[in-house]
Automatic annotation (TrEMBL):
Domain (F-BAR) ranges: 76-347
GO terms of biological process kind: actin cytoskeleton organization; caveola assembly; endocytosis; plasma membrane tubulation; regulation of endocytosis
Membrane topology annotation: Peripheral membrane protein
SUPFAM superfamilies according to UniProt: BAR/IMD domain-like, SH3-domain
PROSITE patterns to which the protein is assigned, alphabetical: F_BAR (PS51741), SH3 (PS50002)
Start and end residues of each stretch annotated as Disordered: 382-453
Keywords tagged on the record: Cell junction, Cell membrane, Cell projection, Coiled coil, Cytoplasm, Cytoplasmic vesicle, Cytoskeleton, Endocytosis, Endosome, Kinase, Lipid-binding, Membrane, Phosphoprotein, SH3 domain, Transferase
CDD domains reported for this sequence: F-BAR_PACSIN2, SH3_PACSIN1-2
Stored Pfam families: FCH, SH3_9
Molecular functions (GO terms): kinase activity; phospholipid binding
Name of the protein described by the UniProt record: Protein kinase C and casein kinase substrate in neurons protein 2 isoform X3
Top-level lineage group: Eukaryota
Any one GO cellular component localisation term in the record: cytoskeleton
Length: 512
């Protein structure tokens, strides 16, 4: 046992290893005097339920390096969980550390919610993109198609709002809590907080005088009870000795003196007990006042945290409540208007005019020669196109000083030449725009498609074919020009899917 610079260290020589349960502990081979350890370290081994040999392993730091500091709670038995009991102020001190942890928990809570908002927004956007493509390429047409796609527009707009919620939670609420936590709690070198140490020191200082007197009361009480017990034993021995004729008068006199001495000890210990208890009672009001003062300081610190949490949660509520956002109500008002604008009668009328009995028909007439009739029909169709407003264009980009008008198309996506995805039909024979006709001929034209030099070209603008022998493509699509431009400005080409047809020559450019 060595004492150095106010610290006590225990050095053992020749240690052995011994397994106790599942843990490896070191047991001192040298027997250390229980009396010596109790005297130097003031440890009550009976209270700790430990033997001197194993006390080192229960708290090795207490032996290896222990600061000889006074602990108010040593030797004082706590009879209840009352705040006024010695050491029970630690729950109030712990609340300060809990406040720091709760700030961290609230930040983690908001961070997790922000991730959920972001994931939900991304899923809405992906869902809207996928289903918009399916609807636009599908057989639905007319005003009902517009109403259907309005649902996808709603999802895209709501997705933007949820991204705003995510940004508000992280950039405003999260940062606000982080800054408040940093300002309210000040970490020290040893890892604890300054506020926690101040509260701990305040309570210990307020409780130390009263705890010292309480310890004296407990000692006086213990001594008095021991004296009373000794008195009863002495009286019992004296009574038994009177009935024993073998005892001489001298022995009997000793027993009587013992009884008298025990009675005096009882009176002395009782007087001391009552005196120490009175002193404790006199110091109790000051003790309560000092403890109350430190407790109120802790209450004020906790009140700031509680009020701050309430303020932050109200801000979170405002950010999460989309019903208070003006744009949120507008989204569903626009959606309702789009759906109510759907008109079944109008859609049926459009389908009748474009795909039913309302369509124009070149009824068979007498033809002198087949090649002449075909040429006349082709010329008639080309002249008719030049006399009308022109072909329907979508997504036109201006090039230099030349621009082409973007005329709104009344033709539904039902007329698009792309083959329908398998989601809509599993019968390819129902597609009127398939690259293969009913007879299995992949070329709807009679002439040879391999004549001339084939050139790869790229579409400059979107084009939707107006007749069955015309191609449809989007700006940026690549196709193969099979024949040069004719006198009417049309070229013959082939799409990558094998479909062959006509297209305006000035809608494409050669790929360099």
């Amino acid at each position: 046992m060595m004492k150095c610079a106010g610290r006590i260290q225990l050095r053992d020589r020749g240690q052995t290893c011994q397994r106790v349960g599942k843990r490896q502990v070191r047991k001192l081979s040298c027997k250390v005097s229980r009396h010596l350890i109790e005297k130097r370290l003031s440890i009550d081994f009976e209270h700790l339920k430990l033997t001197p040999d194993y006390a080192y392993f229960a708290a090795p730091s207490a032996f290896e390096e222990m600061s000889v500091a006074y602990d108010d709670s040593i030797g004082v038995e706590v009879s209840s969980d009352s705040f006024w009991e010695v050491g029970n102020y630690k729950r109030t001190v712990k609340r300060i550390d809990d406040g720091h942890r709760l700030c961290t928990d609230l930040m983690n809570c908001l961070h997790e919610r922000a991730r959920i908002e972001k994931a939900y927004a991304q899923q809405l956007t992906e869902w809207a993109r996928r289903w918009r493509q399916l609807v636009e390429k599908g057989p639905q047409y007319g005003t009902v198609e517009k109403a259907w796609t309005a649902v996808m527009s709603e999802a895209e707009r709501v997705s933007e709002l949820h991204l705003e919620v995510k940004a508000s939670l992280m950039n405003e609420d999260f940062e606000k809590i982080k800054n408040w936590q940093k300002e309210a709690f000040h970490k020290q070198m040893m890892g604890s907080f300054k506020e926690t140490k101040e509260a701990e020191d305040g309570f210990r200082k307020a409780q130390k005088p009263w705890a010292k007197k309480l310890k004296e009361v407990e000692a006086a009480k213990k001594a008095h009870h021991a004296a009373c017990k000794e008195e009863k034993l002495a009286i019992s021995r004296e009574a038994n000795s009177k009935a024993d004729p073998s005892l001489n008068p001298e022995q009997l006199k000793k027993l009587q003196d013992k009884v008298e001495k025990c009675k005096q000890d009882v009176l002395k210990t009782k007087e001391k007990y009552e005196k120490s208890l009175k002193e404790l009672d006199q110091g109790t009001p000051q003790y309560m006042e000092n403890m109350e003062q430190v407790f109120e300081q802790c209450q004020q610190f906790e009140e700031k945290r509680l009020r701050f949490f309430r303020e932050v949660l109200l801000e979170v509520q405002k950010h999460l409540d989309l019903s208070n956002v003006a744009g949120y109500k507008t989204i569903y008002r626009d959606l309702e208007q789009s759906i109510r604008a759907a008109d079944a009668v109008e859609d049926l009328r459009w389908f009748r005019a474009n795909h039913g009995p309302g369509m124009a028909m070149n009824w068979p007439q007498f033809e002198d020669e087949e090649w002449s009739a075909d040429l006349n029909r082709t010329l008639t169709r080309r002249e008719k196109k030049k006399a009308t407003d022109g072909v329907t264009l979508t997504g036109i980009n201006q090039t230099g000083d030349q621009s082409l008008p973007n005329k709104p198309s009344s033709v539904s996506s039902y007329e698009k030449t792309q083959s329908y995805p398998t989601d809509w039909s599993d019968d390819e024979s129902n597609n009127p725009f398939s690259s293969t006709d009913a007879n299995g001929d992949s070329n709807p034209f009679d002439e040879d498609t391999t004549s001339g030099t084939e050139v790869r070209v790229r579409a400059l603008y979107d084009y939707e074919g107006q007749e069955h022998d015309e191609l449809s493509f989007k700006a940026g699509d690549e196709l193969t020009k099979m024949e040069d431009e004719d006198e009417q400005g049309w070229c013959k080409g082939r799409l990558d899917n094998g479909q062959v047809g006509l297209y305006p020559a000035n809608y494409v450019e050669a790929i360099q």
